[in-house]
Write a structure and sequence with these properties.
With 58 residues, the chain is an all-alpha fold. Helix content is 93%, strand content 0%. The chain has 2 helices and no strands.
């Protein structure tokens, strides 16, 4: 029982997991920003190709 109490005290004092969670949240936000940027670029690129297609057909 004393071993369990000691282990729980060590576990509650450990803050390393919180840092990992913070970094993973930052990484997730970076991924969302990159995906949003790529989506905007893809839409603009698609519009350019449609314009070129219309000019070639006419």
């Amino acid at each position: 029982m004393a071993l369990l109490k000691t282990w729980l005290k060590k576990l509650s004092a450990d803050e390393g997991g919180g840092t990992a969670i913070e970094y993973s949240l930052i990484a997730a936000l970076v991924v969302v920003a990159i995906l949003g940027g790529l989506s905007a670029v893809a839409n603009a690129n698609n519009a350019n190709y449609e314009l070129i297609e219309q000019e070639l057909i006419v």
